[in-house]
Amino acid sequence: MAVRQALLGVRGVVDAEVWYDDKRADVEYDPDTVEVAALVLAIDGAGFAGSVMAVKDDTDGGTGS
To answer: Coil, helix or strand for 5?
Structure first.
């Protein structure tokens, strides 16, 4: 729960799902508000090693889910 809470505490993060067993998190965020580096810092601050595996651009004009 620590990583999810740390990510949700970053301004611009809309949602975060964390899988500790897989060492993975999916983060929905506003790229106009927050940089990916800030997300990595939040994960590091929660006591885990953060890195970027992939960035998916969902700015297709839809409402999202």
So the answer is: helix
